Amino acid sequence: MNPIHTHSALKLARRLRRLRASENIRAMVRETRLAPEMFMLPLFVCEGQGVRREVPSMPGVCNLSVDEAVKEVEHAKADGVSSVILFGLPDQKDDIGSSAYDPEAPVQSAVRAIKRAVPDVVVATDVCLCEYTDHGHCGIVIDNEISNDPTVEQLVRAAVSHAAAGADIVAPSDMMDGRVGAIRSALDERGFERTAIMAYAAKYCSAFYGPFRDAAASAPAFGDRRSHQMDPANAAEALREVEQDIAEGADIVMVKPAVTYLDVITRVKQTFNYPTAAYHVSGEYAMLKAAARNGWIDERRAMIETLTAIHRAGADIILTYYAREAARALA
Predict the structure, then answer these.
(1) Active-site residue among 77, 93, 115, 256?
(2) For residues 171 and 105, what is the distance between their CA atoms, to the nearest angstrom?
(3) Is 256 a catalytic residue?
(4) CATH number of 32-330: 3.60.20.10, 3.30.230.20, 3.90.1010.10, 3.20.20.70?
């Protein structure tokens, strides 16, 4: 039997390859579309002036002084990225993270400077103590344990100081119980009812945060963060965390990390249909960079495929160090 004749004799009413025949046809029927406005660029802001210091484990990512952070935001805006999230790197740290609510600290100073230079860019701020404590933990340590309620008090102070500086969004990332409600109440009482809260609602105790801790010098001096960050094995628990944060007043909920928790992103979006963010974290970014530098992958394709997967899973907002590169690639 001639295989050519056998093949041509197939009578298929539906040939799915018809809609893959050309780039224009593929674009017409594409289900998931990335856009620069869904990317939020994380920035590490430090003391000093004229500082642009690359993070060894995160190629292309730098610790930036306030003046350099403003330039970075201006360049990002030109690329089409309209939102950033700021992490602070103070020179002085103590056991209670008091620099977190210093009005002259790097984050507060950067918020004011960015809002003066590029007022229409959305500025979010990370609200946590790990970058500000000399022990590197996310909260107040009492008897070698992270104490929940005293930590929440410090987080409220930090969030209010960010709002007073002009932040559009505050983003508590600590995973303490009750911090969203406490921050919402404090903001409203002080006249910052327009300041939104993006809660790190389902933040997992992940192995993929290493490069971030390199950038922020926030590795714990002892122990780990398993007592407050989520167990990577749990998904139903994430729904309870998200539900509680929504009830307490969160305007946006986040899943972190993104790539290894795509199923959680999907469940959160399908369950609550709420504005959902996902953090494409430092380790996920660094792996792509390392593989690309070794010639093992096409970085541009891998970047777009990864971000597409995060959006396809249900994320409306993607926090990613690739924000500017991805925006340029989509232009």
Answers:
(1) 256
(2) 17
(3) yes
(4) 3.20.20.70
